[in-house]
Amino acid sequence: MMLAQLFLSFLQVGAFSVGGGYAAMPLIQAQVVERFGWLTMAEFTNLITIAEMTPGPIAINAATFVGLRIGGVAGALIATFGCILPSLILVSLLSWVYARFRSGQAMQTVLSLLRPVVVALITSAALDILFTAVSAIRPLSPDSFSLDWMNAALFGGALLLLRRWKANPIAVMAGCGGMYLLFTALTGGMA
Fold first, then answer.
1. Is the distance from CB of 110 to CB of 118 less than 8 angstroms?
2. Taking the CA of residue 106 as centre, how many other CA atoms within 13 Å lie in the half-sphere pointing to its CB?
3. Among the four residues 83, 103, 150, 155, which has the most C-beta atoms within 10 Å?
4. What are the residue ranges spanned by the domains of the chain?
């Protein structure tokens, strides 16, 4: 039963995540955190970090990670297959339709209508992750919010380094991790 739930959950994610992996994050969150409770929000944030650091599409990496955690190797295979199956079918169909009707106005209208939806999905996922990352309360409650100043400072510094000075993202991640470990060691684990 668990494997069937994994397959159907990630089949839905694969079918409705228009716009790529980041657009799939709210859908994955809705399935694995809110609907089935397979992960907490803090674990989901860690999942995103791991899925982004590993090679491959983020949604497929997330499906593999959740499947492995919930159902072992069989769960990983089933969740990953559920996630990619809609894409296999839809891309085959859409490539035929696009090749046939690419210059038509209807096709251009559909594509222009999807852009704002994708931006909204990505923004929603980014805000959820941001609030979880800088919240001192675990799990994050909608009724209360307390800022974790260390995480907020690391976020602000990393954002500044990446956007203004175009720093190497790997160096920024390593630096933030090192600074957090140093701060935690100096404050006796109070971070």
1. no
2. 4
3. 83
4. 2-147, 148-191
